[in-house]
Amino acid sequence: MSESLRNKVGVIGAGRWGTTLAHIIATGGLDTLVYSENAELVANINAHRVNKAHLPELDLLHERVTATATLEDLTANCDLLLIAVSVHRMRAIVRRLGDTLDGSHSIVHAVRGLEAETFATPSRIVAEETCVRKIGALLGPALVDELLAERPNAAVIASRFPSVIALARKALVNPVMRVYSNPDLVGVEAAAAASNVMALALGVVAGLSLGPATYAVLVTRSVAEMSRLCAALGGQATTAFGLAGLGDLLVLREGGGQEVEIGKRLAAGETAASIIEELGPIDAFDAVKTFNELSIRRGVDAEITRAVHDLAMGIVQPLEAVRRLMTLTQMKE
């Protein structure tokens, strides 16, 4: 496939992020086809140009956005496919998608997380379940609210294939979205996933009303720990200091993300079990368990991850977790 978009751009997932991506791509002048298993949602998008279930604040989707409930329709009409689903749903969807693909497609996912059972990155899931090899990831600190308000945003497209980066840029670059590139696909995926864990820690600090000095220490040491986790998964340690690592962490802190709010609840004495019982599955808790297990198996120094894990599991109390971190063996920066 050439580096021009001959057909529509496909988006798999009509949730909040997937719908926003479709709208932004269409606003840039490209026909965009969104896939959802929900036939009623598909009908509403096609008939009324709305997704009130997931994006109620957007009055009308761009007229170039249409929807389908058929993966065969999507892959027959789209060269570039963007996947925007939760990580725990990804393998099942990609497995079904694989039956409709050939080697001419390019796939870019916008999924933050690792598969819990296997430590697989989303790109590895795509490679295992499909014949597609032109794979990339779109991650970083872009926010739905900021994009819809037409404020400046940026993200990183990571891929080993320059053609994938070029296609993603053609689809996404516009006056409110700047797209940087990085060949370190695994590192970008690992950094973005680990930022969920560190954002929980930032929420704990906020919930305990600790001050700016504590924030400064936590952010810098979190990024250092994320760099070690990136390397453990096969990425470059320095990638953690980019948009998908430090950038994600800062936007989760400043944007009042769900992870930070849940961290505040942990600081108040709640546990993962009680929060999940109320809210349902939480991606950040899956990330904590996954990265804690990864660090143990691969001998990675990940004390912040372990402290958040033990706090979420009810093994330690909030102030005890802080004391444990503060009394670690002194080390070099």
Task: Explain what this protein looks like in three dimensions.
- It is a single chain.
- The model has no long low-confidence stretch (mean pLDDT 94).
- The protein has 15 helices and eight strands.
- The protein has two domains: 8-181, 3-Layer(aba) Sandwich (Rossmann fold); 186-326, N-(1-d-carboxylethyl)-l-norvaline Dehydrogenase, domain 2 (Orthogonal Bundle).
- The protein is globular and about 60 Å long.
- Strands 3-2-1-4-5-6-7-8 form an eight-stranded mixed sheet, with helices on both faces.
- The protein is of the alpha/beta class.
- It has helices spanning 16-27, 39-48, 71-77, 87-98, 122-129, 144-148, 162-172, 185-207, 212-232, 243-254, 258-267, 272-279, 283-298, 303-312, 318-326, and strands at 8-12, 32-35, 65-68, 78-83, 106-109, 135-139, 153-159, 177-182.
- The protein starts with 7 loop residues before the first strand and ends in a 7-residue tail after the last helix.
